[in-house]
Amino acid sequence: MGWDEKLEMTPSQAASALDWWREAGVDTLVGETPRDWLKPAPVPEPLIAVSAAPAVEAMPDSLGAFQAWMANAALPFAAPTAPRLAPAGDGTSGLMVMIDMPSLGGTIFDEQTNALFESMLGERAMNVPRQSLYLAPLSPLRPPSGRLDPASERSLSDIARHHIGLVKPKVLLLFGDGCARALLGGPVMATRGRWHELATPSGAVRATATIKPENMLNRPAYKKTAWADLQMVMEELKA
What we know:
The chain contains 8 helices and 6 strands. By secondary structure, the chain is α/β, with parallel strands linked by helices. It has a domain at about 85-239: Uracil-DNA glycosylase-like domain (Uracil-DNA Glycosylase, subunit E). It starts with 10 loop residues before the first helix and ends with a helix.
């Protein structure tokens, strides 16, 4: 019989042939392609649920529109009845001052702290009228704890950079650790006494940090340190 002739088997012959192969130890059909029978079966990779990235809300590109946006934007600690502190002052003065959050009363400072701040600005110190600077909070809302946690500082940082870029001050003075960490990457004592080039969407802004007035009231020795920082700011404004 040639290789091209069809081999026909009766059912009994086929059964006999299968019995022979079974007794020979063959229990699996194989193909012509070699196969590694000792290789472990591949483990399917687990499915990873990929959630869509949250949409980033576009911030207005003019200062007036941005201030209106901040009055209603979804921010850390936001609640329907939570009061928000709005920026105040002259956005074209060249000096921008930023604090971390409102006081307990919802104002920029409490009465005692405000008196110290006024003396820092007064004729015997910086000689800068309050209405001639731009004063803004990093967070317009005060957290229940009275402190900004690291996650809140990070989320507020991008908003603050946008805000600063719209004002484009010649000098940015940051009061307190919250502002310094969010924008300069470290607490006041690690960032004060020198200038930082703070990146904003409108270009770099010269920024430095100093001790916030509340801490000066609690530790009067800090006033000397803060005065050195204010002198540095005054020299930069004159340059």
